[in-house]
Amino acid sequence: MAEFRVRVSTGGACGAGTWDKVSVTIVGTRGESPALPLDHFGKEFTAGAEEDFEVTLPQDVGPVLLLRVHKAPPALPRPLGPLAPDAWFCRWFQLAPPRGAPLRFPCYQWLEGAGSLVLREGAAKVSWADHHPVLQQQRQEELQARQEMYQWKTYIPGWPHCLDEVTVKDLDLNIKYSTAKNTNFYLQGLSAFTELKIKGLLDRKGLWRSLKEMRRIFNFRTTPAAEYVSEHWQEDAFFASQFLNGLNPVLIHRCRYLPKNFPVTDAMVAPVLGPGTSLQAELERGSLFLVDHGILSGIKTNVVNGRPQFSAAPMTLLYQRPGCGSLLPLAIQLSQTPGPNSPIFLPSDDKWDWLLAKTWVRNAEFSFHEALTHLLHSHLLPEVFSLAMLRQLPHCHPLFKSTGLGIGGFSELIQRNMEQLNYSVLCLPEDIRTRGVEDIPGYYYRDDGMQIWGAVERFVSEMIGIYYPSDVSVRDDRELQAWVREIFSEGFLSRESSGMPSSLETREALVQYVTMVIFTCSAKHSAVSAGQFDSCAWMPNLPPTMQLPPPTSKGQARPEGFIATLPPVNATCDVVIALWLLSKEPGDRRPLGTYPDEHFTEEAPRRSIAAFQSRLAQISRGIRERNQGLVLPYTYLDPPLIENSISI
């Protein structure tokens, strides 16, 4: 006979408690107990409760290995009827044996309906560190069950593969939004939809009457950054600054030679460069930068309100003035093919010609950002990382413990970019070096991003050092290697030219890989998602579509033609509502470095988590101090505002 004291913690979220009956089976090295009921008079397992039970084992099972949790409907009907929800969110079990220290069994999962769940004591273990046959078998059974539950499918050929589910309703509770988050999300959307509906804008298919009328959107929602955009969107310096700190700060690169299909001349740019210099001199000095949207060339466009839309594939040449001067646009060509029908637009051109050319570039930025920087890099690829983790890493694995144009045009863009996508693009330090933008001033995405990358890298290095004593230990972790291999095959379609590893050979490679995953799923997503409404609320700054073709000559642009080129009223409203929702976290926030689910029970990883949080707090203080001196603060990479993972 052996007596154990069992403490159970139920989550505090709405609906986390249950009327169902719970029992446990204690599995040890010498056998296992029968199911032991956890039963008091009345309701147990209410939301937010921690409850104690005493259970008696008929025989000694030896040192405890596992805890099996069983959940079943009560003998009598539930007070709310047989159809009432019976899911239970269990945070953890704590088992106090007759002798020795209590054992904590993290759970942090929903249990739906009747069934059983196997929990392990909270110490993380890599695959080669589990020596007992019972624990080895448990790992295999957990992964087998998850691989049956979470399967891959091809959504569109050429895209990363994704979870094989039809609707959100089919998802397991453990990978759905919480009830509170889901409710907030839909309430935000409903309020925005209703307001624009009442104003008569949502159903209006015609053109905006004037730029002044577009400000009616701001009566719906606004932010200080959106107001700043509406006041400065026509300025050349602000236009150029958005390539550094706007919602798509990943495309600008240093230009060492002019592309042959972009025949800019000294005479064209002399008014901006000034006397005593030339294009060649500035190319050699490294003061010229290029933004090339060539991937948009010939892309399929959408039909809006029965009208075909248009796109461009522009090239934009930028100039960094000596010292810490502003970045300025020098020249814009709206196609990849120079010639009489593809003039090079210049700041010295007529005001409306130049403004229209810049607006076409901003439309290209919208398309590139939404399809590639945001959807592909910040949602589709992170889904691959997460799904492969669910399928290949058990809960006890240390990595599991550490760690969202029309459809035709978007699809084609993603397929094109997948053929070019390289591992180095996903690793911020390499990406910055490759693009040659290490020293361009005022590049806050780079500055803040590099600080956060460094903090994540140090945290990951400490955690890897705890569980992987050598390079051999990395190579011998079959679950880790399966995770990396599945990301390569399902996410990058086994394309060797991507440079994406299909295996990891060293601790250094593992640190870079895990840092990339965490950074992509947190900071990178925040940088390219949180500012969407700020950039697009004033629609001419980032038009989602264009109703007239790009100009083929100069001197033809007029105010009325400019407005006729922009999206119609209803399309503007649709996009602004969508980007308002995508920019606003709908509650239940978990900032970067915050781990309310205490999966780690050992002291060493808990110390590393605390140190990581301290480093992020220090980074935040520096960012906020700098922002006090900026007319337009850059907040998208302030650690408290970064979600721990992609949550919207």
Automatic annotation (TrEMBL):
Q: Which domain of life is it from?
A: Eukaryota
According to the record, cofactor stoichiometry and binding are noted as: Binds 1 Fe cation per subunit.
- Which residues make up the binding site for Fe cation? 374, 379, 525, 648
Q: What InterPro entries is this protein classified in?
A: LipOase, LipOase_C, LipOase_C_sf, LipOase_Fe_BS, LipOase_mml, PLAT/LH2_dom, PLAT/LH2_dom_sf, PLAT_LOX_verte
Q: GO biological process: any one?
A: lipid oxidation
Cofactor(s) for this UniProt protein: Fe cation
> Residues that bind Ca(2+) 2, according to the entry?
39
Q: Metal-binding: is it a keyword of this entry?
A: yes
According to the entry, every stretch annotated as the PLAT domain falls at 2-125
Picking any one GO molecular function of the record gives: iron ion binding
Annotated positions for site Essential for stabilizing binding to COTL1: 110
This entry carries the following GO cellular component terms, namely:
cytoplasm
Identify the pathway: Lipid metabolism; hydroperoxy eicosatetraenoic acid biosynthesis
Keyword annotations: Calcium, Cytoplasm, Dioxygenase, Iron, Lipid metabolism, Metal-binding, Oxidoreductase
Residues that coordinate or bind Ca(2+) 1: 15, 17, 86-87
Keyword DNA repair assigned to the entry: answer is: no
Localization, UniProt: Cytoplasm
Q: Which residues form the Lipoxygenase domain?
A: 125-648
**Protein family according to the UniProt entry:** Belongs to the lipoxygenase family.
Q: Any idea what this protein is called? A: Arachidonate 15-lipoxygenase type B
